[in-house]
Write a structure and sequence with these properties.
disordered N terminus; alpha+beta; Aminopeptidase; 34% strand; eight-stranded mixed sheet; two-stranded antiparallel ribbon; 7 helices
Length: 207
C-alpha cells in the first residue's frame, strides 16, 4: 500500500495513516467547486450541478465524498450501490462479460468517478477519497466491488489506485464515453471536443 495505509484484515477496511486533509460527505455548498474540478480534470460538461445535487440527496444508494484542504474542495469521489438487476445497465456491460461472483452478488458497490484538482496532486488525496468511499461501501454490506478507469493510449488513469484496493482489470470497452460525449456535448480532457475515443477498463473485486 506504498506505506500510506493501514489494513484491518478482520473488517476488510483500509485506514489512512495521515491527516493532511479532511474527507467529508459532500454538501450543497461544495457542488460548484466539484463541478469546476470535473470540468478541468474529466472534461467540460461531464458533470453538472444537478448531477451532483441528485447524488447528494439520494444518500441511500449514492456516496459522495469531498476532500477539503484549507476549506477548499481538492477532489471528490462519487460511488453508488446497485443491485443485480441494475449492474449491467449501470456499467453498460453484457451480463456474460461480468465475473461470476458479480453475477451472484445481491449488492454491488461501484466507485464511479474520482477526480483531484491538479493543484493538489501528490498529496494522497485520490487514495484517501477512494478509501473513504470504499469503507462506506463495505459498511453497507456489498458482496462485490467495481470501478471504471479511463484509458487513453496505453495509460490507465487509476490503475495503481484501484490495484491498491485489490481490484483487478477485467475487461476493456472501446470508445466507452463516445455516445455520452456526443449527447451531452462535453469535451474530454484527453480527446478534446466530442466524440471521445477513450476506452473504459472495468475493474472488479469480490468482497
Amino acid at each position: 500500500m506504498n506505506g500510506l495505509y493501514d489494513v484491518n484484515p478482520d473488517k476488510h477496511t483500509f485506514k489512512p495513516s495521515f491527516e493532511a486533509h479532511s474527507i467529508v460527505n459532500a454538501k450543497e455548498e461544495h457542488i460548484t467547486q466539484i463541478v469546476a474540478i470535473s470540468d478541468k480534470e474529466l472534461g467540460e460538461g461531464f458533470l453538472n450541478y444537478n448531477d451532483i445535487m441528485d447524488k447528494i440527496l439520494d444518500n441511500a444508494s449514492h456516496i459522495c465524498k469531498a476532500a477539503l484542504m484549507n476549506k477548499l474542495v481538492a477532489g471528490f469521489c462519487l460511488s453508488k450501490i446497485v443491485n443485480q438487476s441494475e449492474i449491467c445497465d449501470y456499467l453498460r456491460i453484457d451480463q456474460a462479460n461480468l465475473p461470476e461472483y458479480v453475477n451472484r452478488a445481491d449488492k454491488i458497490g461501484v466507485l464511479k468517478t474520482i477526480a483531484v484538482n491538479n493543484d493538489f496532486h501528490r498529496h494522497g488525496i485520490g487514495y484517501a477519497l477512494t478509501l473513504a468511499a470504499y469503507n462506506d461501501l463495505i459498511k453497507r454490506d456489498i458482496q462485490a466491488l467495481s470501478s471504471i478507469a479511463w484509458k487513453n493510449g496505453e495509460k490507465i488513469n487509476a490503475d495503481k489506485l484501484l490495484s491498491a484496493l485489490g481490484l483487478r482489470p477485467h475487461i476493456e470497452i472501446k470508445s466507452y464515453w463516445e455516445a455520452d460525449g456526443i449527447k451531452n456535448n462535453y469535451n474530454c480532457s484527453a480527446c478534446g471536443p466530442p466524440p471521445c475515443k477513450c476506452s473504459a477498463v472495468l475493474y472488479f473485486k469480490a468482497v
